[in-house]
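Quiz preparation item.
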């Protein structure tokens, strides 16, 4: 039996109503009483003044902010209404605006909203209130940001973490690990052997490179097309355009078809070439570290390696670091913290970061494939080992699970690509309580990054290849082998959910492999390097 919805409409006030405009509904009761009532409400009806010359009033604004504060969805009656910062904020994601002549349809409109839509609107409304309207400082900063945006003054650059380099000697010739060339059953295409080239420096928040376009030529009549995209509206690789009259429907970058070699020369993507930076966290495992660095020798598209030295004890003075063809920057940290993995070091000059553990064992073709996939989905975490969260019904709490599964909601950042933009957010914007818990347990930094990216993008991460682990054979036992490691990760997930106010992780059964995954072809025919 369906429970009918409850609607509360008060036409009289228990005490003296607040002063209001002649054509406006007055505010009843004290603010605390109204908030207590709104906490029990799913929607809050806000009727705009009857004077059509008024776009909003102080009473309407008060009702709007009170609803957002407690998580009720504002339902605004009035076609002429203009909500605060309407040209800057997407109010349709947090409120419903209905013309007054359609008041009889409100009930049906509200009943048509799904539970997931309601959750998203309530969460977005609370976010808008906390970010733009909750305090005098937030209101002042919002006004300044709005003025700056309208007159097109660039925002002040966010600070980067200054890297204190540890001097070290290099010169040891790095050998070639035969395991790097042995692809086993995973044939991902030919390995590029081009010389190093300058990589576009990361300059702007969450952008692509400066010349963000891809040209598509056709043999058919008609001009070639350029498709520029803005930082906030990237062109998806699956987009397609009509290329002139009579040319038919052709995908971008496809040419006449089968142009795998040209597609590969663009790194399997529709933007100019670029490189990535390896950030490797280590703690007093010099031999393991040296072996991992040697395995990076000759890795295409590698810009540099930033070794985050997490130990207070400096490296051995007689330690000879390998020469892998690119700079190795050894960075000293202030304290031993897993959060140091995600600091936006000023030495990182690329948008793409490959976060990798010092005992991770990945082949070059796997790393290149992950990089190609990331370039097609720059707002996602792209990694190798997948993990997922699950709801524990008996204990009514969340669990962390690393078993083999058909779905995942996280990828381990011990071997994952992500955008440098997220390093800023993790270090300077994400709630400090999360970083404190990472320091307390010396654990869960990868879960925290997955929470952050899923919260911002509302997308799950992307897993590449069939790998479920990336540990090197024969390496010393890692912390993850301890039983307490998983108990701590259970606690982390539940704590992070409390901080965010909901579970941001999203499930997916999607995995990316090469089009020629496990397809045996002669070497001269192996030209394409595309994705499913």
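Solution:
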């Amino acid at each position: 039996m369906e429970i009918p919805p409850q609607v509360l409409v008060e036409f009289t006030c228990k005490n003296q109503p607040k002063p209001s405009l002649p054509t406006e509904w007055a505010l009843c009761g004290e603010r605390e009483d109204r908030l207590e009532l709104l906490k029990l409400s799913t929607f809050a009806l806000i009727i705009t003044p009857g004077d059509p010359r008024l776009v909003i009033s102080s009473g309407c604004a008060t009702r709007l902010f009170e609803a957002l504060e407690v998580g009720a969805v504002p339902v605004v009656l009035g076609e002429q209404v203009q909500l605060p910062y309407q040209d800057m904020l997407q109010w349709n994601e947090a409120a419903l605006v209905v013309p007054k002549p359609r008041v009889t349809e409100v009930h049906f409109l509200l009943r048509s909203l799904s539970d997931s839509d309601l959750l998203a609107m309530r969460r977005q409304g609370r976010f808008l209130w906390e970010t733009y309207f909750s305090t005098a400082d937030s209101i002042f900063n919002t006004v300044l940001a709005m003025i700056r945006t309208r007159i097109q003054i660039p925002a002040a650059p966010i600070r980067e973490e200054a890297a204190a380099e540890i001097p070290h000697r290099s010169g040891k010739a790095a050998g070639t690990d035969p395991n790097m060339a042995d692809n086993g059953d995973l044939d991902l295409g030919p390995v590029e052997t081009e010389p190093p080239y300058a990589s576009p420096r990361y300059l702007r928040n969450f952008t692509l490179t400066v010349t963000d376009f891809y040209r598509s030529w056709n043999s058919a009549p008609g001009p070639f097309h350029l498709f520029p995209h803005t930082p906030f509206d990237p062109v998806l690789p699956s987009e397609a355009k009509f290329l002139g009259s009579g040319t038919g429907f052709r995908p971008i970058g496809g040419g006449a078809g089968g142009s795998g070699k040209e597609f590969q020369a663009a790194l399997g993507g529709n933007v100019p070439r670029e490189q990535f930076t390896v950030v490797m966290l280590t703690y007093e495992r010099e031999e393991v570290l040296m072996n991992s660095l040697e395995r990076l020798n000759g890795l295409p598209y590698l810009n540099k390696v930033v070794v985050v030295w997490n130990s207070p004890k400096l490296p051995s003075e007689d330690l000879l670091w390998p020469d892998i063809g690119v700079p190795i920057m050894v960075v000293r940290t202030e304290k031993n913290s897993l959060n140091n993995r995600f600091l936006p070091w000023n030495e990182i000059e690329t948008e793409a970061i490959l976060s990798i553990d010092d005992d991770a064992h990945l082949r070059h073709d796997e790393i290149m494939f992950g990089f190609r996939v990331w370039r097609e989905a720059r707002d996602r975490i792209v990694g190798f080992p997948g993990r997922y969260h699950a709801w524990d019904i008996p204990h009514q709490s969340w669990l962390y699970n690393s078993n083999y599964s058909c779905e995942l909601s996280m990828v381990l950042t011990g071997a994952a690509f992500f955008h440098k933009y997220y390093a800023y957010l993790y270090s300077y914007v994400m709630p400090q309580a999360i970083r404190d818990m990472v320091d307390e347990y010396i654990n869960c930094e990868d879960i925290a990054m997955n929470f952050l990216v899923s919260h911002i993008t509302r997308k799950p991460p992307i897993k590449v290849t069939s790998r479920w682990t990336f540990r090197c054979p024969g390496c010393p036992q890692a912390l993850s082998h301890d039983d307490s490691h998983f108990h701590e990760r259970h606690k982390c997930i539940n704590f992070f959910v409390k901080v965010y106010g909901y579970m941001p992780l999203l499930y997916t059964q999607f995995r990316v492999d090469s089009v020629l995954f496990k397809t045996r072809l002669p070497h001269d025919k192996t030209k394409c390097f595309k994705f499913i």
